[in-house]
Amino acid sequence: MKTGVGLWIDHRKAIIVVVTEEGEEIRQILSLAEKKPRRSGDSPLKGFYAARQVPAEDSSQRIFTGLLNSYYDEIITDIRDAESILIFGPGEAKNELKTRLETNNLSERLVGLETADKMTNRQIAAKVRRHFAE
Length: 134
Fold this sequence. Notes:
By secondary structure, this protein is α/β, with parallel strands linked by helices.
């Protein structure tokens, strides 16, 4: 059996299941990216709150994109040795990762791209096992 990797991903975390002849291994990679900027702990009653506490939209988007790029690079480093890659998840992160795989010349290893809702680690592992058992 070859090394197969199943990956459930969204913008917050990635659950990676590596399936080999010896068994399976589950790893998790957390993203530091967050969609909505956080406000500091100051009170909104002390002045113009939002204008001072929330960064400009374009600045926030650049930071968010940079954090996502680091997150995707960490995932690609982790799955680079896989012979087959299955990606699934609820949002756009799976498509963004697919584009990054194409950029890194790893798209020929991609065997599936599926939409899936939130899942537990056991459900993710079972789905990956079923896929690579076929």
